[in-house]
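On to our target:
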Amino acid sequence: MKLGILDTVPRSYWSTDLGITESEKFIDFLTPVMPDATLDQLFVAENEWPDSLYSYDAYLVTGSPCSVNEEHLWIEKLQQFVRNCLVSQKKLVGICFGHQLIASAFGGTVERRRDGWLLGVESFDIVDVQSWMKPIQMKCEIFHINQDHVSDLPENAQLIGHSELCENSAFVIGDSVLALQ
């Protein structure tokens, strides 16, 4: 498998995270469970894009200190890219900012949380078990550090996970898109 990791952290933020990029964190996390995969970093916030939508088997959109509601050309381009992924049935996973960007790209609403930042490990309930969820677990724990959230899902999204603090914790669109806050 060849995975394109779409890093959404602008270079100006890199020194604030011990010099480790978001995509490197995912490479460190995924390499033990995907030892034969090719995991490539693409710094989309720095205008580094795949040569083609078909350059990779799947894509992962990382977290970011930016908001999807900020006006940046790379965010608009990334929203179009994720729409093209769905049309082409290209596998796509969005985490944190990626989750919010996917929702926004398909007509969902992303806004600031009324309660401020959500920081720490949060448990959410699986409300719609998917066939690929093995072993089946009815609760998942995920680390959060976000002040924005998806308040309204896109019409074509199916909610699969929620919690009291994050109503739209996880959703899918069709068989090719997964988004996790």
Notes: Helices lie at 22-30, 73-87, 97-105. The mean pLDDT is 92. Residues 2-180 form a domain with the Rossmann fold fold (CATH 3.40.50.880).
